[in-house]
Prior knowledge:
The structure is a single chain. This protein is α/β, with parallel strands linked by helices. Helix 2 (19-28) packs parallel to helix 5 and helix 6 packs across helix 7 (194-204). It is 32% helix and 13% strand. The strands form two sheets. The protein has a five-stranded parallel beta sheet, sandwiched between helices. The chain has a five-stranded parallel beta sheet with strand order 7-6-8-9-10, with helices on both faces.
Amino acid sequence: xxxxxxxxxxxxxxxxxxxxxxxxxxxxxxxxxxxxxxxxxxxxxxxxxxxxxxxxxxxxxxxxxxxxxxxxxxxxxxxxxxxxxxxxxxxxxxxxxxxxxxxxxxxxxxxxxxxxxxxxxxxxxxxxxxxxxxxxxxxxxxxxxxxxxxxxxxxxxxxxxxxxxxxxxxxxxxxxxxxxxxxxxxxxxxxxxxxxxxxxxxxxxxxxxxxxxxxxxxxxxxxxxxxxxxxxxxxxxxxxxxxxxxxxxxxxxxxxxxxxxxxxxxxxxxxxxxxxxxxxxxxxxxxxxxxxxxxxxxxxxxxxxxxxxxxx
Length: 312
C-alpha cells in the first residue's frame, strides 16, 4: 500500500488547524494510507478527523520514525525552513510538499506568508499541487466517551506560556457569573495547571469537584467540549476544540492576532483582542501580554450575552 505522510508534530491547537489539509490529502489519495507524524497524545483525536489512518508518534523537530519503503507523498505541515524540511527529505518520498521561504528559497513550493491564518496556510500548501482544501472543514466527530459533566460552561484559564494567560481573578469573576446563571461550571486545564484551576474555582466559590484540570484524557476533554453550553478560554488548544464542535465560545487574545489563529467568521464564536498587526507581542513570553490585560471582565460577560442573542 502506498502512503501519504503528514508532519504536524505540535500541540492540540496546531493539530486542529491542520484538519482541512488532512482531509484534502485523504480525498486526493483515497487508496493510500494516511499517516500523521505527531505526538502520541493526539491519537484519540486523529481518529475523529476521518482523515488519518495511523498516527506515528513523533516529537517536535525530531526525526520521523518512518519504517519501510518511502511514502508516496510527504507533506511538511510543520514549518517553512530547513529544520522541518530535512525531516521530510529524510523520508525519501518522491513527492514532497513544502513551503519556500527566506531560509529555504530553493524549495519547489509556494512562498510562505507570515501574515496568513494558520488554517488557510496549510490549505494553500496542498492547493499548490492541485488539491482543493476548504478552510471551513474543521469539525470533528464526537467522541464515543461520555462527557464528565453534561452541558457545562467550560472555563479554561491556562495556556502554554504566561503571555497568553488572562489573570486568574478575572476568570474567576466570569466563572462566578456563569454559575449565578445556573450553569454547571467546570475549570479545565492540564495536570500542570491544576493549582491554577483550583485557585480560579476557589475564588469563584465553586466546589472542588468543578476542577477537572488533569483529570480527563484528551478524548474526555473533547467529549466535555463537544457537549458544552459555552467555552471561555485563552488563545490555546481548547478554543480550537470549541471551533471543532461548533460550541459557542469566547476566546481572549493577547500577543497574537485572531486574524492569524482565531475562530472562523460566521460561527458562534467571539474573539476579543485589543491590538494591531499580526504578532505585536511575544507568544512565548513570561509575563501576561499587555493587550490581554486590556480585556475586561465586563467585555467577556457582554460577549457571552451576545452569544445567547438570537441571530437578526
